[in-house]
Amino acid sequence: MGLAEEQIAEITAEEGSDDFEVLPENWEAVTFFRRCQTQWRMAGMGGMVGLDYGAVAWLLRLYEVGNERALLEDLQVMEAAVLEAMANKGG
Which residues lie across from 48 on neighbouring strands? Predict the structure, then answer.
């Protein structure tokens, strides 16, 4: 997401901190991703498989997002990161 591996390691090494910075140009995507937090598709005992794009489309309309395609692409980057992190955790 634009950071070098060393920068990520430095940030994640800080113990006890849940704080993180968001670049202004990413704020809308991060905020919207949080709005989608309960819209994950589940595969039984298999865990999360991805966002429910039908529900995401409804939220895009509800919040009158200007560039839906660009925001969806940003959400997909975060969605992929969450799925990868969950797979690495084993769940």
Answer: 42
Type of residue found at 42: M
Radius of gyration of the chain (CA): 15
| pTM score | 0.73
- Counted residue by residue, the chain has a size of 91
Residues 6+ apart with CB under 8 A from 7: none
pLDDT truncated to tens, each residue of the chain (91 aa)? 456 777 667 666 665 567 788 999 999 999 999 999 999 999 877 688 999 999 999 999 999 999 999 999 999 999 999 999 888 876 5
